[in-house]
Design a protein that fits this description.
globular, mainly beta, 3-stranded antiparallel sheet
Length: 166
């Protein structure tokens, strides 16, 4: 998992350390005004790699109302474009989670786990301009309300094909 900000003074250095498709996705977030983009799902091509852009207008929710998720074919680049704040939980997929819903073999490429009170989750605070990059081994729970106070957010997700990065 990676976490950072497009406003960080080391952003350009960070991009140089990443595979080209992943760096291109993060560069796209910095270089484009997605706050005024129409919501929806769009096919885009960055660094000669087909990707999926999702522009989502949602509301954060209480942690207990959200399910942990993973993806196997895509790296999830999630970006808080406006609104918030938002928290996101994460933990390593150790193979001991109980599956709630498996949609991995669908275009959504998503698997939801049941919540498990015994899992030690890390929390990422997201504010406008911050991003989290989740790899297939990173269980994540996005859109958690900060201090149990729901907030409207514009969340941008770029799905980068895992196999394009190695």
């Amino acid at each position: 998992m990676l976490y950072g900000s497009i406003y960080n003074e080391f952003f350009e250095t960070q991009l140089k350390l990443l595979p080209a498709p992943l760096a291109a996705a993060l560069r796209f977030l910095k270089d484009n005004d997605l706050a005024n983009h129409e919501p929806g799902k769009f096919d885009i091509k960055l660094a000669d790699t087909p990707m999926i852009l999702q522009v989502l207008d949602i509301e954060t929710n209480l942690r207990e109302n959200l399910r942990p998720e993973i993806h196997r074919k895509f790296i999830d680049v999630q970006f808080l474009c406006s609104g918030g704040p938002e928290n996101a939980a994460y933990y390593n997929d150790d193979g001991n989670n109980i599956i709630d819903e498996d949609l991995l073999n669908t275009p959504r490429d998503i698997l939801f786990y049941k919540n498990n009170a015994n899992v030690r989750e890390g929390i990422i605070p997201l504010e406008v301009g911050t991003f989290a990059v989740y790899f297939p081994w990173d269980v994540h729970v996005p859109a958690i309300a900060v201090n149990d106070k729901p907030a409207k957010i514009r969340k941008i997700v770029i799905k980068v094909p895992l196999n394009a990065c190695y």
